[in-house]
């Protein structure tokens, strides 16, 4: 999909490298399972089927999980108007527009392709942001679609779940279906599978988190460049991050499964996640980059 969003070759290279490394990790993982077990084929087929289903229906799954619905221009004129202007500026097809009725101030993009893409915002973010701030957030989300990193993250995130699913299956199949084996042999086999799966999951987790952090920086940069108002996006980031502290902890925990896709992570004022484990760069890192973009664009000079 050709758009006026600048191609981000570093993001493309990182996505390709992440997918390659994840694929390599899982090839090794399956090879180890083949050498240890005889019942791996069915599990791999089931996992592959689930992966295809998640990739094919990722937009529906995400909207259903957030209890969001597609809205028309008549229902949300302001939201559609902003997206219409941004898509015209970016010369890209307009995605479907969805609204999630929750006080959590956030937004995300999903969908396997530009034809299936959806930009979803919450009622919480609509109520809190000014039009220019909301424009910056939506430009950020549209850049995810233009860069195709939404589909890559969908596949990469699922691969991280695969190891855990295989581990559970192998554990129970050995415990309940492996009675013919010697007890010590069964125990050693289960421990080996658990160990290999844990290593695979940890590697996948770190690779996905690293890609997630970089793609958010790339989207900030692309969105701010498209609108020409990095300060509006910086204001939105600051405001939404601050408002997270007002959201009940129970609601934050419910939404944390979507953190890798959200505009800002659903965490409180003092997140306990370390840099390696976080899905997003720190607020300060994002603001510093936007300040650099602002200087490059000469935003201050135009404003005066």
From TrEMBL:
Main location: membrane
Classification via Gene3D superfamilies: Metalloproteases ('zincins'), catalytic domain (3.30.2010.10)
Cofactor, how bound (note): Binds 1 zinc ion per subunit.
Residues at the catalytic site: 141
Membrane topology of the entry: Multi-pass membrane protein
EC number(s) from the headed UniProt entry: 3.4.24.-
Record InterPro entries: HtpX_protease, Pept_M48_protease_HtpX, Peptidase_M48
Cell compartment(s), UniProt: Cell membrane
A Pfam family that the UniProt record links to this protein: Peptidase_M48
Enzyme class, broadest EC rank: hydrolase
Domain Peptidase M48: 73-292
Positions with a binding annotation for Zn(2+): 140, 144, 216
Keyword Transit peptide: no
Cofactor (UniProt): Zn(2+)
Keywords: Cell membrane, Hydrolase, Membrane, Metal-binding, Metalloprotease, Protease, Transmembrane, Transmembrane helix, Zinc
Residue stretches spanning the membrane: 12-34, 40-57, 150-171, 186-208
GO molecular function, one term: metallopeptidase activity
Family: Belongs to the peptidase M48B family.
NCBIfam families: PRK02391.1 (NF002669)
PANTHER family per record: PROTEASE HTPX (PTHR43221), PROTEASE HTPX HOMOLOG (PTHR43221:SF2)
Protein name per the record: Protease HtpX homolog
């Amino acid at each position: 999909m050709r758009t006026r969003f600048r191609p981000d070759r570093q993001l493309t290279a990182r996505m390709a490298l992440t997918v390659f490394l994840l694929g390599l990790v899982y090839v090794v993982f399956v090879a180890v399972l083949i050498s240890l077990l005889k019942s791996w084929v069915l599990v791999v087929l089931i996992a592959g089927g689930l992966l295809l289903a998640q990739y094919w229906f990722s937009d529906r799954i995400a909207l259903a999980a957030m209890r969001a619905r597609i809205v028309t221009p008549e229902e949300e004129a302001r939201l559609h108007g902003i997206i219409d202007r941004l898509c015209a500026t970016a010369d890209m097809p307009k995605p479907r527009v969805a609204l999630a009725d929750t006080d959590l101030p956030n937004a995300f993009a999903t969908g396997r392709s530009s034809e299936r893409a959806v930009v979803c915002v919450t009622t919480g973010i609509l109520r809190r942001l000014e039009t220019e701030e909301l424009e910056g957030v939506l430009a950020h989300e549209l850049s995810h679609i233009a860069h195709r990193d939404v589909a890559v993250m969908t596949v990469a995130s699922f691969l991280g779940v695969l190891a855990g699913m295989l581990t559970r299956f192998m554990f129970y199949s050995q415990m309940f279906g492996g009675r013919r084996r010697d007890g010590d042999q069964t125990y050693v086999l289960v421990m080996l599978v658990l160990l290999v799966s844990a290593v695979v999951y940890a590697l996948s987790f770190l690779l996905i988190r690293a890609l997630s952090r970089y793609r958010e920086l790339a989207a900030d940069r692309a969105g701010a460049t498209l609108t020409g108002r990095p300060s509006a996006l910086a204001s939105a980031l600051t405001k939404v991050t601050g408002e997270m502290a007002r959201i009940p902890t129970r609601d934050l925990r419910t939404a944390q499964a979507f953190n890798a896709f959200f505009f800002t992570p659903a965490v409180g004022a003092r997140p306990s996640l370390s840099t390696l484990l976080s899905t997003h760069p720190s607020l300060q890192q994002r603001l510093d980059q936007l300040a650099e973009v602002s200087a490059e664009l000469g935003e201050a000079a135009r404003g005066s």
